[in-house]
Every structure is written in structure tokens, then in C-alpha cells.
Amino acid sequence: MGARAGVWNGGMNDADAAQRAFRDLLRSRPVWDTELPSFDPATAPPAPLPLFHAWFAEAVAAGQPEPHAMTLATVDAADRPDVRTLLLHDADGRGWHFATHSTSAKGHQLAARPHAALGFYWPVQGRQVRVRGPVTTGTRAESSADLHARSTGALAAALTGAQSGLLESTAELHRAADAAWERAAAEPDAEAPTWTRYVVEPAEVEFFQGDARRRHLRLRYRATGPGTWTRELLWP
């Protein structure tokens, strides 16, 4: 007798088969299928920023796609964590910089709870960097300069709709995006009043170097005062 629709003779239905296929695919993925660089924490600088600059440059040199992409974690009004991927705009003595609309979901969350965590993952070299700390906003002039230092497409994106707001249809998005592109091209100095520069002032910065034998190295910097840091090794 043939199997019922959606059920195999072996007792596995389509959903079970799909789940098994997914798990097999997931578990078969290689991790760091490349030669990884060495890292000696004893040679690390006394502050995290120079090491971040060096690792970023090495990620670029190694061909890491979009090394400036990072995850940003915030907390909403109900104390639920939220996370998304966006681009780093700078890393200097003030902290790690990014920008978004103050009226977006993350903008509202940061206004209510001005703390955040950042995560960088550079698999080409088996490296991660994590940053945590309070968040401050830049001045209106800094936010405007940030907006206009970027491409026409980035300006158009900032001028398109209400970020995180409800969208009625993709047709509405296309109309708004086309209009924003036209405006950005015609008015390169156009302002987006809610566009805001944010800075994560680091309280902790962790550098993770992966190892093929799972002897991962984790070096954490903890701020102990203005411009002073304690370095600590962590178990992987």
C-alpha cells in the first residue's frame, strides 16, 4: 500500500524530513576552513582602540567582505533585547560611531536606555570584537556631516519613509525610494532632521581569536578610569 500524502513509508513526514535536511546541512558547514592568524595577547597595546584599528586593517587586507558591518544590540521598553546589523561610521578616542534615525526603533530604545553592545565577526580570520558601553548622541552638526559624507544612495535611504514604521505595500516603498533618489541627486545637501550620529563609549572591549583546535583566545579590556584599562584573559 502506498504511503499517505505527505508521509513516507518509513514514518517520516515532510516536515520531519525538511527538519532533518536542515540539521544535516547545518552540521556539515565548515568553520574557519582557512589558515588562521596567530595572536599573542601579551603583545596587545594598553588600550583597545589601536588593536581594533589593526585588526580591522588586517581583515580588509585578508579580503573580509564588509568588515565594517556590525551587530547592534539594544533593549526595548519591556526589557527585551533587540539586535540588527548596520555599518560602523568611525572608531576613535570617543568610541565606536554609527548613525540612524532617532525616530527608528533603535533610536527610541537608545533614548530610553542609552546603553548598547556591538559585535564584529570576521570569519576570514576567525576573529570577533565585542564592545559594550553607554551611548551618547552627536551634535546636530556632526549628524548632518555624517549624512552628507556618504553616498547618494545612503542619503536617498535616509530620506525614504519613516524607518521602522509600518509599510502598506512594496509599491509604496518603490515610489518613496524613487522620489528620494531623485531628491538626493538634485539636492546633495538635503537634510534628514531625525538622522543622528551615535557613539558607543566603551566600558568593555573583547577581542576573540579563533583556533582550529578550539583553544580560542579571548582578551578583554575593562575601563577603569579615563583613558585607563585593565586587560584580562577569559576562558573560551
Give structural attributes.
10-stranded antiparallel β-sheet; 236 residues
What does this structure look like?
With 236 residues, the protein is an alpha+beta fold. It is built from 6 helices and 10 strands. Strands 1, 2, 3, 4, 5, 6, 7, 8, 9 and 10 form a 10-stranded antiparallel beta sheet that branches. A hairpin with a 7-residue loop joins strand 8 and strand 9 (217-225). It is globular, with a radius of gyration of 22 Å.
Q: What is the count of helical runs?
A: 6
Strand fraction: 25-35%
Oligomeric organization of the protein chains: single chain
| Structural Rg | 22 Å
The percent range for helix content is 25-40%
Short synopsis of the structure:
With 236 residues, the protein is α+β, with helices and mostly antiparallel strands. The protein has helices at residues 14-27, 48-61, 105-112, 140-148, 152-159, 170-186, and strands spanning 69-75, 81-87, 90-91, 96-101, 115-122, 127-137, 195-200, 204-209, 217-225, 228-234. The longest helix is centred in the last third of the chain and has 17 residues, at 170-186.
